[in-house]
Amino acid sequence: MRFGIIGTGTVGRTLAAKLVSLGHEVTLGSRTSDNTAANEWADRSGPYGHAGTFTQAAEFGEVVINATAGTVSLQALRLAGAEQLAGKVLVDVSNPLVFSATGQVSLEPVNTDSVGERIQREFPAARVVKALNTVNADVMVDPARLPGTHNLFIAGEDPEAKAVVRAMLVEFGWPSAAVLDLGGITAARSLEMLMPLWLDLMRHFGHVDFNYSIVTAD
Amino acid sequence: MRFGIIGTGTVGRTLAAKLVSLGHEVTLGSRTSDNTAANEWADRSGPYGHAGTFTQAAEFGEVVINATAGTVSLQALRLAGAEQLAGKVLVDVSNPLVFSATGQVSLEPVNTDSVGERIQREFPAARVVKALNTVNADVMVDPARLPGTHNLFIAGEDPEAKAVVRAMLVEFGWPSAAVLDLGGITAARSLEMLMPLWLDLMRHFGHVDFNYSIVTAD
Predict the structure, then answer these.
(1) Which of B146, B153, B218 minimises the CB distance to A216?
(2) Taking the complete model, does pTM exceed 0.90, yes or no?
């Protein structure tokens, strides 16, 4: 399968490497075609790893993954192009973290809106699925690094798109039953609003190797 | 030990009944002294269960528990009285849920403030501990109804107050190690921001018998 990844940070590069290792073909997209991180990644990733612009990545992918910071995601996806995103499964991994001068972190948008919803509104022909924004990049692609059962969440309007994302997560090593479908894209609000707890837990544990397991009575 | 509970809803009554069953003495406080729910609860709770006003409950308790809706908590605690709350451990169990006409739920305050912080700011002589707002009332007082290990979180400025709350939770049946201390009262933000996910999970499972377990690599 062909994937286009928007964003060359840790999340983008980690997902790109995992997808290539699974035999998929990936274009890692950056704002400009001379992005060092993207080109170095492509150079060492064999014939299935490519570097390109946001537009080239979006055009390339049957599935497009937004791995940019949530505060700049809309801008990045505008550069990728509505035409290139139309009909595509668009996995939104972003969190809209805003860092204040005093080091306090908040979210924007939050509460009555979310990046996931904003993307779906601005690109109505894309099939947006919120996913993977609740764990560290290493955990995303290697759930077995944590013991026992733990969960991911998906949300989006398009059941087929969610099935495609679920299949990708299963390829990453997540049991299908561990991926909880929270319904429509509005649930991106609650998933993005998990980030402050994730940051508090990071401070509490002193590392990022953790995840949420939802324990139920039945 | 003597507990004063502010609020006679399900959470207040469930906590009151548990505390009485553990041999503590409880005054369940309501806005007016003729509150039917509170008086009926006191009538069937034996000599250790009392009903009273918010002020009487706050005066009575060595530990005071805010079990009102987060959107009216400050108002209720003003009625309880700053003098009655001074020096007390004040457990804030609230969530500031706002229900829109269309059924959408949001939080107010959120993101850059929280009910826990607002209470601590307005009642600086109280020793506020955010706790228990992340689970259903039945789970609060009976963690064994869910299998395995699952977690609660506490946050507040006063380590001794947090130790008192932790001891209460251990009496409720929570292993001390399951109660994660997230630091100062600012962490009330992330704990209150968990509520939208809790609501999405309630819709997903069709019940409220669930909780978060934090899985770590170590």
Answers:
(1) B146
(2) yes
